[in-house]
Amino acid sequence: MKVILSISGVHLEEEKIKLLSTINSEARVRQYWFSSWLEESDPRNESILSMLSDFGLSPKASLDKQDYAKEFRMSRIRLYDHDDYYKSDYLECHPHFIESHNMPVTMNRDESGLLRFARSSLHPPPTNDIVLSNSWNVLSIQAAMDALEPLNLMGLTFKPTQLVHGQGGDAQWNRPVAWEDCAESDPWWELSSEITLPPLSPSMDLQDAKRRPIERGDRSRGYVPREASFSHAELHYLRSDLAAVEPFDAAVTYESFGSDLKATPRLIVSQRFYQACVDSGLKGQWIPVRIDEN
Hints:
By secondary structure, the protein is an alpha+beta fold. The chain has six helices and 17 strands.
């Protein structure tokens, strides 16, 4: 596993951006904007942060709208490898933040409960076979369903999605499109489970989107777990709680994550599910789930 230090949202005069670029020539630069992703141990990070301090900028700490004249965004991102995945009994389906992917757009569900999938988000098509949508629903291509469904993975369900014309709010954009009439892609399916896991471990720092603490097991608000300065908190479970759950290869979290109106449970899968994806050549992205001793 590598830890990346992400420095982004830097908005400065063009000459200052050029000075920052001399420190990290691989940074993403767009005239007045600068973003850097380097391993946390890279000494260039210290030089970049020192220069930003000289320019009067500091890391954004509040939930208020960013003041670009005074602030930039900084976070730590874990990048895992296959050894990390193989050592984990369970994994969360989740994309890495740096790796390139096209996130499909899903809206609210139709009258029958099917997730509505925007046809316009298939241009270009997502680069992975199992992905998250913008609303954190887990989706898979038809080939993933064809490969995984015969394996009888415990708890895994495939739900059809309703393809619609676009992303707008009016009736024209929400007009249904039959998947067989979609030349851009085979059908996409929503991956879910009928098995619900117990609440997360008490070791986790659970807050809502406004950083207000949430009691373990409280379902009245959407969760935003936090872990130090990491952009994404690893989920933790008590070993004794998982031992009480029926065997599963796919299950959803007890908690829903995100803002209250769009909060969605996350999909947790087993090592057997992960290895089935590897054996089938299916591309997905994962985050290890940690198990706390009692």
